């Protein structure tokens, strides 16, 4: 089985065109995509989780 693609937070922020501060505000409200924290404290977001989050945002906007 292939390992899921993990994106750095900076890559996600660039893709969704959002500032780091805005992302953390969304995260505090429970509205951000699911994150995975590495042992060194860095944040990664799996591509599938980001795509699911995008789909959920499109449904709420419609």
Describe the SSE topology.
Blueprint: E1 6-8, H1 9-16, H2 20-28, E2 36-37, E3 43-46, H3 47-61
Antiparallel strand pairs: 1-3, 2-3
Provide keyphrases for this structure.
62 residues, globular, alpha+beta, 3-stranded antiparallel β-sheet
Care to give the gist of this entry?
The chain is built from 3 helices and 3 strands.
Structural description of this entry:
It is a single chain. The chain is an alpha+beta fold and 62 residues long. 52% of the residues lie in helices and 15% in strands. A 3-stranded antiparallel sheet has the order 1-3-2. It is globular and about 35 Å long. The model has no long low-confidence stretch (mean pLDDT 91).
pLDDT below 50 for ≥5 consecutive residues: which ranges? none
Radius of gyration: 12 Å
Number of helices: 3
What gap, in angstroms, lies between the N and C termini? Answer: 35 Å
Largest sheet: 3 strands, antiparallel
Work out the number of β strands: 3
Anisotropy-based shape? globular
Q: Give helix % range.
A: 40-55%
């Amino acid at each position: 089985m292939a390992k899921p693609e993990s994106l750095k937070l900076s890559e996600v922020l660039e893709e969704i065109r959002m500032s780091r501060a805005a992302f953390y505000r969304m995260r505090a409200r429970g509205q951000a995509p699911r994150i995975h924290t590495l042992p060194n404290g860095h944040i990664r977001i799996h591509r599938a989780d980001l795509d699911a989050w995008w789909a959920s945002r499109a449904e709420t906007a419609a």
